[in-house]
Amino acid sequence: MRGFLASSIGVATAAVLALPLALPTPALAETAPVTPAGSTQSLPLVPLGPSATRTPGVPGMSASAGRPETQGLTTREVKTFSLVGVVWDDATTELHGRVQVRTRSTRTATWSDWQDVETHNGEHAADLDAAERGSRQIRGATAPLWVGESDAVEVRVQAEPGAPTTRAPSRLPTGMRIELVDPGADTPTTGSDGKNTGPDGDGKGEVAVPAMSMGTAEASAANVPHASLGANEITALDKADSTADAVFASDGELTAAAAPYIGPRPRIVTRRGWGADEGLRESGFVYTSTVKAAFVHHSASGNNYACKDAPAVLRSLYRYHVISNGWRDFGYNFAVDKCGTVYEGRAGGVSKAVLGAHTMGFNTNSMGVAVLGTFTSTAPPAAVVDSVARLTAWKLGLFGRDPRAKTTLTSGGGNLFPKGKNVSMNVISGHRDGFATQCPGTKLYGKLPTTRTTSAKLQGRP
What we know:
Keywords: Signal
Protein name: Peptidoglycan recognition protein
Distance between the termini: 34 Å
Pfam family, one: Amidase_2
Largest sheet: 8 strands, antiparallel
Family: Belongs to the N-acetylmuramoyl-L-alanine amidase 2 family.
Number of helices: 8
Radius of gyration: 22 Å
Order of helices and strands: EHEEEEEEEEHEHEHEEHEEEHEEEHH
Number of strands: 19
Helix content: 10-25%
InterPro entries: Amidase/PGRP_sf, Amidase_domain, PGRP, PGRP_domain_met/bac
Structural class: alpha+beta
């Protein structure tokens, strides 16, 4: 299922009309000067042979002649960046090998140790027949790695011994490049905090609406009436108010009696709140029919970030997904940092069934939640587990789903289930349940039974 597209003008206009009549017309400053946050440096990798300048003794990364093919980039001073990843031309080609980088910190002027980059990342993507794949060039890519503010880099990619030949005589994908992503500085916004909106707002008086580009207005409008136009966050609500808010937002399509199991809405930082440059993504939104399941992921971008830096991590991931990978927008529907803060992901409205690019084969009628970090051998903090439970209790509740139940999804094609196969899955599943992958990491995956129980309890289910 390809989903359906909602136009940007229609969504923004509908939201403006939904605002109280006492409000002045919001300023949709389409021609206002906008300085996009961040940048991406894309540097081609070249063959590397034995060299005295290369660091010896790294297991699996021999520089000896006759050993497996290696490409990379020798020590290079560059413009400031904070996140790295390797991309290549053909998204259907797998990288069989090892990718390592080391970077120089701008703060300490010291080099990091060699760090491994997760190479198996193709399963975090749009479905094989999704329109998203036909609208632009989709590239193969490693997982991104957050390294903090840096100004120099060295990278090497070594083919796995016995790896299949991708083109004679190479065993590595064609067109490999290192992507160096700068998230840009945090820019203070003047939007509201999202309070005094929804069913309890009295609609009286004049409310200031900040000037915005059309893209920003489009993304923000998709969250009206849960928050005001230009809000930096959508405030938390208790269970009773969450139900009332959902009924109000449904415009008569939902009643409290028909939806008794909506969990309390968590606080959600909007795209405007974390500084998304709405000029990067494709305009409009793509929706599916419903939300039957939530897939939990880890971003595999490492745990070396402070919670205050999470918005910068998100801006970097967003830019990597769109500019480097070629996706239409941020891949996941929501993100959660290691302190438990919930963030809006792909644009289209936090309460709506937005088609994402997170679980190849099962993006239709599902939602993707990415926990920022790597949880293969590191346990997720309790705040993360709690926030995932709260988010799923609310969002799945909007669509009448029991977090402890099973549901049936139809595969769009992948390495576990062929296209068209109906698959029974947990309503709250891990990425590895739909695709042969390590995601969301063994330690986070092990918390999903607790998450299901807590989520159902928050919904008030017996």
